[in-house]
Amino acid sequence: MKKWLLEVFGTNKPIIAMVHFDALPGDPHYDKEGGMEKVIKLAREDLLKLQEGGVDAVMFSNEFSLPYLTDVRTSTVAAMARIIGELKEDIKVPFGVNVLWDAKKSLDLAVATGASFVREIFTGVYGSDFGLWNTNVGETVRHQYAIGAENVKLLFNIVPEAAAYLGDRDLISIAKSTVFNNKPDALLISGLTAGSETNTEFLKEVAEAVPNQVVFANTGVNPRNVVEQLSFTDGAVVGTTFKVDGIFENHVDLERVKEFMSIVKNFRENL
Question: What is the pLDDT of residue 230?
Fold first, then answer.
């Protein structure tokens, strides 16, 4: 089940770097004066720095569409498609997409832009900062096949940020049943919010519980913990660590990317 990592990323233990789009049209914090041209400019600068710094892949998300919707508006998906289309000639690594928090629209965007993977909350029911958060994985996967996205890899975030599973179930049970029922391409384990360190023990327990399953750390990976976390996971999604001063609201700092990826590449060379 893990061979797809090499097929998609060209390496084991890949680092997927986040390209966080600034607020988009219709979002509360959208910069109407700067407009879409500003959003595209900042996204391009981040993309180029991440690639120059040596990341293995990127994932585009509407990270600053706060507060998030679970039924995302068409205007948001259209804006994201335009941005990625404008950046397409600059994208030199595999890429994925994440329309926060709408699984079907993430797949729609993936098909429209040629993305190789999507990250989403595909399963479970949650009490969250965004209200009652429900999913329908059977419907979502059928939509995936209906729109011709069957080759798009599905990265299941089973610990959604700012939310709690409503069923009285522990993380290991959730991981095991998610793998059995849904055959995800990867499981992602997160902290409380973007940039919050993922609990190392949780990561290790999940990886041991589903040894044939791809498991990624999804938040809070940094130069101090990346070697330990990659020692028992299959890769990581990294966003905040790559930003100026390691602050979520900032944009990418090339030197931070180079430092982090140097640690990762040295680790992989010694596997």
Answer: 96
